[in-house]
Amino acid sequence: MNIESLVRTNIRALKPYHSARQDFLSGILLDANENSFGSTMSETGLSLNRYPDPSQHELRVALAGMNGVAVEHVFVGVGSDEVIDLLVRIFCEPRKDSIVLLEPTYGMYRVAASIQDVEVRSCLLTDKFQIDMDAVKNTLSKSTKLIFCCSPNNPTANLLKPDDILAMCDLGPLVIVDEAYIDFAPSSSMAKQVLTHPQLVVMRTLSKAWGLAGIRLGYCIADPVIQSYMMKVKAPYNINALTSRTAVQALRKKDELRRSIDAIVCERERLSQALASLPCITQVFPSDANFILVRCTDAGALYASLVKKEIIVRNRSTEPLLKNCLRITVGTREENEQLLLAIKEYGA
Description:
Blueprint: H1 9-12, H2 57-67, E1 74-77, H3 79-91, E2 98-103, H4 108-115, E3 119-124, H5 133-139, E4 144-150, H6 162-168, E5 174-178, E6 200-205, E7 218-221, H7 224-233, H8 241-250, H9 254-276, E8 281-284, E9 291-296, H10 299-308, E10 314-315, E11 325-329, H11 333-347
Helix pairs in contact: 3-4
């Protein structure tokens, strides 16, 4: 497949902004109108008066090593949302092209497309929340440039079958699989599949298992052609120096990561069993993520009852296939005990 043919014509012709730090990161820097006298804030080891490395080379090298790919395959963004936004902007012509969503799924895919005035074509998952290949084929049109899916899926919490995801790569559009929750799942990332499937893009994040939602750092593993266009279109200094350093430091803490994941998975299983015993919970869906989807007798009433007790979950009842469903993040043991008590009191 020729990836270039999927890129918007004006993006192929785009001459990107050339920032000062693309040329020099050290020396007597008098080229970018920075404050040469320093910053009002000090941070050990960082010159906050200077613009950061626009290529984020050190961070990308670390992420490449962790995922078993070359650095040319890695793009870093301000959360996965920037990755999603850039992919739509690079490949989809407004009022002409379309994307396909495998729903129910993460809402930002639709928002990013709608902002760019790109048609969204919805394809439902099966009642087991798996990919329906015939339905996908029937949903595609000649205008479809991107297929978005999430595995483990948000909000249903289950892994999609990797073979189905790879089979979609033969249909023509790029296939973007969002692996925000993959660290909590029993199977490994599909990142290395990018090496043999150039139309596959795998999104990852440091917001979930790494516990770094506050620094806003997401990334994707993609064919170097796709990565090069993302580098071309992104804002010159999209990742700030504080975020970059925090991310690099965090990636060295693999033992802490493992302990956190193990604790969450253990608590997830305990919470799932406890929820299944409650009369107002009619179904607890299997989870490969750090959250649990449950079906209730009355999701709206239960949600409102929990809010009154300042326990906040997400009501997903308006989404396809999810009537009377709540999505519950796995909290600490103490938080989960308060949740269970509140649900018992609601059902009493």
